[in-house]
Amino acid sequence: MTLTERVSQELKAAMLARDAERLSTLRLLKSALGYAQIERKTETLPDADVVVIVQKEIKKRRDAIEHYEKGGRSESAALEQREVKVLESFLPQALTSEELAQLVRDTIQEVGASSKKEMGLVIKAVQAKAAGRADGKTISALVGKLLP
Predict the structure, then answer these.
(1) How far, in Å, CA of 112 to CA of 18, rounded?
(2) Structural domain boundaries of the chain?
(3) CATH topology of domain 3-88
(4) How many whole angstroms separate alpha carbon 80 and alpha carbon 67?
């Protein structure tokens, strides 16, 4: 089953369970997937593209959480946090910190990077290998730390 099909199934299950909050989040995700299909002029999206879209939606909500907390709107921040949890269920299992560190070390050796000037090249290669299992900020920080 593709991720797009899974989103549709979860949407139907949320409707049957009358879970309004989950239903709302899944509708927003389905809408984002629909816009991506229209933009790319395709009937179905590969799972890798769906993962990227889910990550973008999560990032939007994390940014909103930050702004809500600064503005003292804890109820809105809590709602956004619950939406993040729903969206995270569609992401692949995240890499542990040890696995990610090993992946970064291996990539540095493969690329032959020897200074921080090559940091962008290493980050790009690690992101391709991680395939949505680690976020960009974490990868960037780790590459910066491990490169001489």
Answers:
(1) 54
(2) 3-88, 97-146
(3) Hypothetical Protein Yqey; Chain: A; domain1 (1.10.1510)
(4) 11
How does pLDDT run across 102-132, given as a tens digit for each residue? Answer: 888 888 888 887 778 888 888 888 888 887 7
The tens digit of pLDDT for each residue in 15-56 reads: 999 999 999 999 999 999 999 999 999 888 888 888 889 989
Q: Cα-flanking dihedrals φ and ψ of residue 59, to 5°?
A: -60, -40
CA angle centred on 41, ends 40 and 44, rounded to 5°? 85
Q: How many other CB atoms are there within 10 angstroms of residue 147's CB atom?
A: 17
> CA–CA separation, 22 vs 86, rounded Å?
7
User: Residue 26 is encoded by which pair of tokens?
Assistant: 């899944």
Q: Map 80-133 to HEC letters.
A: HHHHHHHHHCCCCCCCCHHHHHHHHHHHHHHHCCCCHHHHHHHHHHHHHHHCCC
pTM: 0.73
Cβ-contact 100, 125 below 8 angstroms = no
